[in-house]
Amino acid sequence: MVAEFYKYQGTGNDFIIFDNRSLKFRRDIPTFYSGICDRRFGIGADGVMLLQNAKDCDFEMVYFNADGREGSLCGNGSRCIVKFAELMGIKKERYVFRASDGLHDAIIDGNVIKLKMHDVHDIKHLINYYEIDTGSPHYVEFMQNISALDIRTEGAKIRHNETYKQEGINVNFVEALSNGIAIRTYERGVEDETFSCGTGVTAAAIIYSVENKLIPGAYTIPVKVLGGDLKVSFEKISNNNFTNIWLIGPAKFVFNGEIEISF
Q1: CA dihedral sign of residues 122, 67, 10, 90
Q2: CATH classification of 123-248 is 3.10.310.10, yes or no?
């Protein structure tokens, strides 16, 4: 059987997307999803997404990591699949779709997609880092000169240590800039650095406000990733309470094609 696929990217975080409203793709075929993510023997991507029908909203997003396993929320992937939904004829002023962690709102403004994240009410501050869940679990550590860091080595050490090796965690190294922050992320499931991680960017922006003791109020934090620039806006109620959180940035079509499938 031949299936059409679409490739999208959000600040360098790239995804293969299938229109699965006919349910031809099953969830229990991890070797297929990992195979097409391979950058030498497949199409190449950080993850795979299925666009599916949903009874209670505009569509459902099913997300698979590059290792082929179904993953938690992907922020950049969410922005990309909203743009794909528009291409597939689902045209709305404001979208509501279902992801692994529940319903999300999204707004398209040209190539800029605004994704509403869930509120955050639980942040752990440990010795020199933070733990926070923004739809996916994140380790956030602030430091200087992150451009010189060996992310693949240092990120893997943390992600596979005794604390995190069973469930895994996304590891973010963050540097404060004169206007906002820069971030580099080692992603579980990809098991490497990605050019951008939307839930990691969201986590880092929120932690930036905690680390710098910003007073309660509304903020928009510019975030520089390897693949470009994003913004995170939110309302800070307290150091452990954030609401009205939006991940804002581009989502772009790259190419589409056909692939032979046999499963």
Answers
A1: negative
A2: yes
CATH class of the domain defined by 2-114+251-260? alpha beta
**What residues are annotated to the active site?**
74, 197
Residue type at 52 in one-letter notation: Q
Dump pLDDT digits (tens) for 136-155. Answer: 999 999 999 999 999 999 99
Closest CA to 246 of 94, 123, 140, 142: 94
DSSP code at position 73: -
| CA 193/CA 172 separation, integer angstroms | 10
Regarding pTM above 0.90, the answer is yes
pLDDT at 63: 98
Count CB-CB contacts under 10 A for residue 127. Answer: 4
190 Cβ neighbours under 8 A, 6+ residues apart: 46, 47, 65, 66, 67
